[in-house]
């Protein structure tokens, strides 16, 4: 086998044995370099291979090295080194620490990459994070293994300059996509075969779980809005003050709270997940109910490029969602704030891809409920809550 064929065979070995990592393994590109002294990676999924040095390695050792490098890349070891400020003199200890984090995921019987540290070698148990091995692990005096900038982020002499949109190497955006894909595939693999190493599963679940629980956030935003309105001092003339009888002919306003007027503008042109939309509406339904406000007090304006007539329904599931075509939520927002009584709180459910009014219409408090994986920025006058798919958490068994 020539060196090219060996790389192809090693990658196939890796993808066969670690199928949940395949998307990352096949994103690797290879660069020959005689100064590496083995194999090293950079943050752009490029693997620098010293063919003279590695020509005597078995294919499975070369494959294990690829799995190892993918471990550094997927787990973001370079970014994590920057976060805790690892300096050049400590780099090799950081490499040992992150090596220990990933080496216990290698399937038993597979070769450990050349001279790579293990948890045991650092005097600590398996399954810790690199940061813990770094802080508490024994320092190896004879370590010379440098996995490359993929592991620590400090440029190495062999690192080639990276340019976006070239065939060699990938940028940050694609790197995030690959991470998410591998995380999903890891969870799916575990569900189907139950044989994914614990720490890969822990990593995948950590990545797929939403950063915030949207239910809690939506609840807090809505409750805050309602509390501020119902708690607001309202000199209402609707119920005369008791002092009226003592006063002359002037009717004094009474101090009382009232039910808030809430309107909902629903973007029917958006490509929103129906399931998430249903969940978010049901959540609003439940929150209003808990606050003593019936859902049929809510005025709902469906809107694509024009606003529909307001609907009042008993339950969120009774809404008639008509629409399609272009989006201009400004139309729906205008219709909502011009309807009397003026709403105290305006909820706008959308994927976010719409032109917005420049300022808060009629001074109404407005919350954008964004149903989209990666919603665009919204104007400052809008509060925002992002509704995301809640990834299933699969625990190691
Ligand atoms: Zn390493």
Give a nutshell description of this structure.
This protein has 13 helices and ten strands. It has 397 residues and is of the alpha/beta class.
Characterise this structure.
- The protein is an alpha/beta fold and 397 residues long.
- The chain folds into two domains: 3-208, no CATH class; 214-387, Rossmann fold (3-Layer(aba) Sandwich), CATH 3.40.50.
- It has 13 helices and ten strands.
- It has helices spanning 3-17, 22-25, 51-54, 59-74, 77-83, 91-103, 130-136, 149-152, 172-193, 198-208, 214-230, 274-290, 329-338; strands at 29-32, 39-41, 46-49, 235-236, 254-255, 262-267, 299-303, 345-350, 365-371, 382-387.
- The strands form three sheets. The protein has a five-stranded parallel beta sheet with strand order 7-6-8-9-10, sandwiched between helices.
- The two termini are 41 Å apart.
- Residues 233-249 and 251-256 have low confidence and may be disordered.
SSE order and pairing:
Elements: H1 3-17, H2 22-25, E1 29-32, E2 39-41, E3 46-49, H3 51-54, H4 59-74, H5 77-83, H6 91-103, H7 130-136, H8 149-152, H9 172-193, H10 198-208, H11 214-230, E4 235-236, E5 254-255, E6 262-267, H12 274-290, E7 299-303, H13 329-338, E8 345-350, E9 365-371, E10 382-387
Parallel strand pairs: 1-3, 6-7, 6-8, 8-9, 9-10
Antiparallel strand pairs: 2-3, 4-5
Helix pairs in contact: 1-4, 6-7, 9-10, 11-12
Zinc ion binds next to helix 4 and helix 6.
